[in-house]
Amino acid sequence: MNCPNCGAEVRDVDRFCGRCGAEIRKEAGEASYQQTNYQEGSQQQGTYQQTNYQQPYQPLDTRKSRLVAGILQLVLGWGGVGRFYLGYNSIAIAQILVTIFTCGIGAIWPFVDSILILAGQVQTDADGVPLKD
Ligand SMILES: [Zn+2]
């Protein structure tokens, strides 16, 4: 229990506070008990508010669209645009080079690539973030 005068912790058997000398009465014990209850209540309330604050919070959706990537790659695959969009820069550059050096025949690769993207064979972008359907 605590001293009603100064709040110092006193033993139950003590009749007077060791710090300020105030008389410890039974009412003081009840008051201390109520104060403890109040503190526990405010702690629970704080937890509840914190939980409420965290629940509506969602990380910003930075996922890239599978559909956008597939269409870009389908239409502009010779330029690796779909792969650039997903962050696969080295693949995109390779697709450009292959298309150039094969006089356009190699554009079959980015075309097939676009089908794979649209079919869901490419699961993530270059950062490993899953694509949005
Ligand atoms: Zn005291």
Question: How are the elements arranged and paired?
Answer:
Blueprint: H1 26-54, H2 66-76, H3 81-86, H4 89-101, H5 108-118
Helix pairs in contact: 2-5
The structure holds zinc ion.
3D structure, described in words:
The two termini are 61 Å apart. The chain has 2 domains: 1-57, no CATH class; 66-118, no CATH class. It contains 5 helices and no strands. The protein is rod-shaped and about 100 Å long. By secondary structure, the chain is an all-alpha fold. The structure holds zinc ion (ZN). InterPro entries: TM2, Zinc_ribbon_dom.
Radius of gyration: 34 Å
Question: Would you list the SSEs in sequence order as H and E?
Answer: HHHHH
Instruction: State the total count of DSSP E strands.
Output: 0
**Helical content (DSSP H or I, runs of 4+):** 40-55%
Helix-strand category = mainly alpha
Instruction: Quote the distance from N terminus to C terminus.
Output: 61 Å
Q: Strand content of the residues, in percent?
A: under 5%
**What overall geometry do the principal axes of the alpha carbons give?**
rod-shaped
Give a short synopsis of this structure.
Helix content is 53%, strand content 0%. With 133 residues, the protein is an all-alpha fold. The two termini are 61 Å apart.
Pick out its properties:
mainly alpha, TM2, binds zinc ion, transmembrane, membrane, 2 domains, single chain, 133 residues, 5 helices, rod-shaped, 53% helix, TM2 domain-containing protein
